Predict the structure.
Amino acid sequence: MYTLKNEGIFKMSKDNPPALRVPDKSTVEFETLDCFSNQLKEESRQIDTLDWNRINPATGPVYVEGAEIGDALKISILSIELPEWGTMVAIPDNGVLGSLIPESQIKRLPIKNGLVQFSPSIFLPVSPMIGVIGVAPESGEIFCGEPGNHGGNMDTTRIAPGAVLYLPVYHRGALLALGDVHAVMGDGEIMVSGVEVPARVTVTLEVVKNAGVKLPLLEDRSVCAAIASDEDVERAVFEATAAMAAILMKKRGLSFNEAGMLLSAAGKLCFCQIVDPKRTVRMEVPKTILSGLI
Ligand code: CA
Ligand code: ZN
């Protein structure tokens, strides 16, 4: 197994030098900082002392040998180790309820015995997930805080242990980086933070040749899903739905109309996050209908 200490990058780009090179089918452990670069350790700290240039770091990138343009990178998420504390924030004008937030607040939440202690009487079972996970984008550089077809800040609750994520490979080696782990997060992430944590994430990386993957695809124990991001949420909905219809046509031998009807009858459209300039949605299909993506 390979281990990668945090080598924080803030932009995903083909020009980032690899922090690690691994053969195909390697298992890699990533140490990650939280989305604030671990800056918020006290509730008394003022949010305006935060260095915004250090928001949304990702650990990497990892160069996967054999990954070529047009392939997909298959990322099997094996485990996420959580620390003993998580952090949440409320920031005026940020998130769905931003206009109603009177003043900023930092909240530190103990994590113990598989539970996040939200208050003396409210406990949330941990459900660890990766907020930022992506490859070098097709062109230019993209902040780690931004989602897109390369992955990035998708804030998708299903990107969790047991899941397999497929990302398009745009550049040789793929250049995978990840970070922004949440101990638990609600679909939509309406206040712009989950329970933000530094973490240790273990994944296996595998190249799938000529996979035809155009946007992030996910498979876990219960669903297959296509994930899409766009400034226009309806456009994101269209992209995720069209991608899943195409997969149903191919894998289940359905006509376009039938694939659409099947999604209309049994698909589940979910918000991943609704708070970044680019919104992220996913279209899920139960495994009983679609047993696999590739
Ligand atoms: Ca995030
Ligand atoms: Zn986060």
